Amino acid sequence: MVIRARGKLIAALILVAVVIGVLIETAITRASTYYITVPELYARGTAALGQETAVSGNILGNTVRWQPGIRRLTFQITDDSGKSRLAVSYYGDKPDSFTNDWPVIAFGKLTSTGQFTADKLLIKCPSKYTAAGTNG
């Protein structure tokens, strides 16, 4: 009797440990955000069309167009070299911190016209803030 009870207890503990392990693995996998750069997206060619992707780049301030009536935001992002540009279209609320040269991650799909249709934007804070009028 004691051996059966001990066996059931061990089996229950193993089951609980497995469930906790699966939950931890799932949380880590979903919490990690993998994104590619604009040149990496273009390097994928036609294989990138219509695929859910997260693309990172810097906002080009002079390309930002906000249409509040239809809540449409269009802009371009570029890589650090400034050579590769990607046109992005997003419907939703304009992020408060949407500023020129700030890094952004756009989640969405590349269309056959070369436009990236984002359904989510994540504005990343720049690594260094400077006060206005200072030199670094």
Could you describe the 3D structure shown?
The structure is a single chain. The protein is α/β, with parallel strands linked by helices and 136 residues long. The protein folds into two domains: 1-32; 36-123, OB fold (Dihydrolipoamide Acetyltransferase, E2P) (Beta Barrel), CATH 2.40.50. It has two helices and six strands. It has helices at residues 2-31, 38-43, and strands at residues 36-37, 53-67, 72-78, 85-91, 103-110, 116-123. It has a five-stranded mixed beta barrel with strand order 2-3-4-6-5. It is elongated and about 75 Å long. The model has no long low-confidence stretch (mean pLDDT 84).
Major sheet: size, sense and barrel closure? 5 strands, mixed, barrel
CATH-assigned fold name of the largest domain: OB fold (Dihydrolipoamide Acetyltransferase, E2P)
Radius of gyration: 23 Å
- Helix/strand class: alpha/beta
The string of secondary-structure elements, in order, is: HEHEEEEE
| Domain tally | 2
Provide a count of the helices. 2
Helix content: 25-40%
Average predicted local confidence, pLDDT: 84
**Overall shape:** elongated
Number of separate strands: 6
* CATH hierarchy, class of the largest domain: Mainly Beta
CATH architecture of the largest domain: Beta Barrel
Which strand order spans the largest sheet, edge to edge or round the barrel? 2-3-4-6-5
Low-confidence parts lasting 5 or more residues at pLDDT below 50? Answer: none
How far the N terminus sits from the C terminus, by CA atoms, comes to: 75 Å
